[in-house]
Design a protein that fits this description.
By secondary structure, the chain is mainly alpha-helical. The chain is 78% helix and 0% strand. The protein has a domain at 1-195: Growth Hormone, Chain: A (Up-down Bundle), CATH 1.20.1250.20. The radius of gyration is 30 Å and the shape is elongated. It is a multi-pass membrane protein. It comes from Companilactobacillus paralimentarius DSM 13238 = JCM 10415. Keywords: Cell membrane, Membrane, Transmembrane, Transmembrane helix, Transport.
């Protein structure tokens, strides 16, 4: 491969990395953005959702347009659109402006990814395409995995605005490289008509599907809106399939799905990216809310997974054609299953060694599937079939990420609610069975009831209750005054010296009682804090125990692949 082609591949890889990175780079910066724009978390979540929904909706239609007008021209225009959207998002002073910017970003991204990949495939002969597929698969998966780390670093040291603005200089560099390396003159185009009916139907199908998955947690999964979107999406999909079957220039040639390897690749890609999303979407929150590390530290703790992924993907992809497809993909699913099992049994009390092991295994598992599956799926395709095939794979990967995050956050919400109820019941029982005076017990129980409606529980933020020295003195003075007043009402007037002696005696008695109470409170606090920690740990980690059967069952997908693969 010439130096020019290597530079082209490098440039196009950066484009794919940027597109996938922006699907989740802002997630970890949400608290800072929320404070800066003074909006609710629910409203701000649309800045993420709008990018995800529009990106998934337009991937397939825009990929087809590139075949008609030329992928180089369309890619350069898309880069400018993406940079404009990033600038608007970075300079936003209100939520509405941020949503406009993110929408523009997503439209540019929906062109950049498919056009960039098609142009990359064109740089080599078909029999050498595996190398390009390996590079693209690794850099794009890396973008998904590194999003929290890069977002956390940028927001902490440069502010949330630069989470978006960082794209602008990178896009300028990439655009200049494109103009120097890729000619827009005499570009190869296809003389095919735009399938407007198919375009509208598939865009509508994906829009309603992603909308229901993204908003199902907020709307309620069984609400009329969620079910309506899912049913409408399914109906549009059926109409789309019928339309494509009778179209002379289908946007997705349905004969692709007669290929067992292509179907198998889509299934295992979906499984792989659901697992990846469940990891990068849940574990950083577990590390911050339960273990007590900072957002940036949490992001750094999952970075070894990205490094392993970067190295394992090209190695595994090189084995396509040399090793049986079933063995190659099956190995990846087995490693994924082991990593998910370990996620469900994480113990980070003393060190992070188990987490590092999960990072390495997960990166190895994803790398052993992502690159090989894409290579097996599109390695022998050309022209419009290649465009359609890789667009569908991109959509499946994106839907997998959406399902992983939406489903796991919804399940986590339910687990947290159960944990809160358990914590409040345990705390109440622990207080009632303590040696605390009834007055103190009642105050503590009322405080627990008052916290029953709080949105979150966090073992790291609760403070140990205790009676302070000032409160002890105040209690002693109050008790002394009651004794003096009682004697006064009985006609006994105590001299000042006696009053002082009485106060000192009451103070010593009060201090001894407070010492006992504080010791009891310390024991209660320690037990409740540990119980909260255990409940939260269980709330997070049981998600992976539920996920494990799904991943193990996914091993059956390897039998979809043909036993023999092309060489």
């Amino acid at each position: 491969m010439t130096m020019k082609k290597k530079l082209i591949i490098l440039t196009l890889s950066v484009i794919g990395f940027l597109v996938i990175l922006d699907t989740n780079i802002m997630n970890i910066a949400i608290p800072e953005i929320q404070s800066g724009l003074h909006v609710s978390l629910t409203d701000l979540s649309w800045a993420i959702n709008i990018y995800t929904i529009l990106f998934a909706s337009f991937l397939i239609p825009f990929g087809r347009i590139g075949d008609i007008v030329g992928h180089v021209k369309l890619l350069n225009i898309a880069l400018i659109v993406f940079a404009i959207g990033s600038t608007i998002s970075g300079l936003a002073s209100s939520l509405n402006v941020l949503l406009i910017g993110r929408s523009i970003q997503s439209i540019g991204a929906a062109v950049m990814l498919p056009s960039g990949m098609i142009l990359g495939f064109r740089q080599v002969e078909k029999d050498k395409r595996n190398k390009i597929i390996a590079i693209f698969a690794a850099t794009q998966a890396l973008g998904a995995a590194l999003g929290p780390t890069i977002g956390g670093f940028i927001s902490q040291y440069f502010g949330w605005h630069w989470v978006f603005l960082i794209n602008v200089p990178l896009v300028v560099i990439v655009l200049v490289m494109n103009l120097l390396l890729l000619s827009m003159k005499n570009e190869v185009v296809k003389k095919i008509r735009i399938d407007f009916g198919g375009t509208v139907l598939i865009a509508g199908t994906l829009f309603l599907l992603t909308l229901s998955l993204v908003e199902g947690r907020n709307w309620n999964w069984l609400s009329l809106k969620t079910i309506g979107c899912l049913v409408s999406s399914l109906l549009l999909l059926v109409i789309f399939l019928y339309h494509e079957q009778h179209s002379s220039d289908p946007i997705i040639p349905l004969k692709l799905f007669r290929n067992r390897n292509y179907v198998g690749a889509n299934v295992v890609i979906m499984i792989t990216f659901i697992v990846l999303a469940s990891y990068i979407g849940i574990i950083p929150t577990f590390l911050t809310k339960v273990i007590g590390v900072s957002e940036l530290h949490a992001a750094l703790l999952i970075t070894p997974m990205s490094i392993t992924l970067l190295f394992s993907t090209p190695i595994a992809t090189k084995l396509v054609g040399k090793v049986n497809s079933r063995i190659l993909v099956g190995f990846g699913i087995i490693i994924l299953s082991i990593s998910v099992y370990l996620m469900g049994h994480l113990n980070l009390e003393n060190n992070y060694n188990q987490l590092y092991l999960v990072d390495i295994l997960l990166g190895l598992g994803i790398g052993s599937i992502a690159g090989p599956a894409m290579s097996i799926a599109v390695g022998r395709l050309e022209g419009t079939e290649l465009t359609a095939a890789q667009n569908v794979l991109n959509v499946v990967r994106n839907i997998g990420m959406i399902i992983g995050i939406a489903l796991f956050l919804s399940l986590l919400d339910g687990n947290i609610d159960s944990a809160k109820q358990n914590v409040h019941s345990y705390a109440t029982d622990r207080i009632e069975n303590s040696k605390l005076p009834k007055v103190v017990q009642n105050k503590m129980i009322n405080k627990v009831k008052g916290n029953a409606n709080t949105s979150q529980i966090n073992s790291q933020s609760i403070k140990q209750p205790q009676i302070s020295t000032d409160q002890t003195i105040k209690m002693a003075k109050t008790q002394t005054k009651i004794i003096i007043d009682t004697k006064s009402n009985a006609g006994i007037i105590l001299p000042t010296e006696i009053k002082q002696q009485l106060y000192q005696k009451v103070l010593v008695t009060t201090q001894n009682k407070v010492k006992v109470i504080n010791h009891e409170l310390k024991g209660i606090f320690k037990d409740v804090k540990q119980y909260i920690h255990n409940q939260l740990t269980d709330a997070f980690l049981k998600l992976y125990k539920w996920e494990l059967p799904f991943v193990v069952f996914g091993f059956l997908a390897v039998f979809i692949f043909k036993e023999k693969q092309y060489k």
